[in-house]
Amino acid sequence: GQQVMQIPQYQHVQEGEDFTTYCNSSTTLSNIQWYKQRPGGHPVFLIQLVKSGEVKKQKRLTFQFGEAKKNSSLHITATQTTDVGTYFCAGAQAAGNKLTFGGGTRVLVKP
Amino acid sequence: NAGVMQNPRHLVRRRGQEARLRCSPMKGHSHVYWYRQLPEEGLKFMVYLQKENIIDESGMPKERFSAEFPKEGPSILRIQQVVRGDSAAYFCASSPSQGTSNSPLHFGNGTRLTVT
Question: Which among B41, B45, B102 is the nearest to A98, CB-wise?
């Protein structure tokens, strides 16, 4: 079955630094979504990418969908303490199929 | 604009008891998904339902677990004869009728099940 892997599993970042987390699927995706879960909270939708090579920005967050639609990345610039949480990517193989979540990248920010 | 409502937030059961988790989707959403999350792990798909229909239950254990989404009322995830390994956070999510390819999932606050 479809597998979605995320690396790294943990990311310790100094406040103000940049970092990137990566998402890789074993199969081609129709779309990829990113979610953020704060400690003790529930996943909250951030963004969806649909087109090959698509890049979207949300303030300090930049999301990219690979040309082959099998991988994605999230880059955060000038990390802040509010960025703490787990970032999940989730992919669907075809329209209407269930979303398969990656294992998440747990981000800890050192002030 | 109520979001996805799950109850209870916390549920403690002894081994062998039944656990019932409830989920009311967002207004206007007819698709419900249940995910399970162990501490420090990702979200594992369990089941996808529409009103009165189970669309995909490929992530549900074959025994002790069942789910329903009746015509009236919330979706229910039922775990019979709970064991310690069932301890986890169970999240419900809903989406509008067009399905996951065009719609994000809206998650509830989850039910944290502890089996003693």
Answer: B45
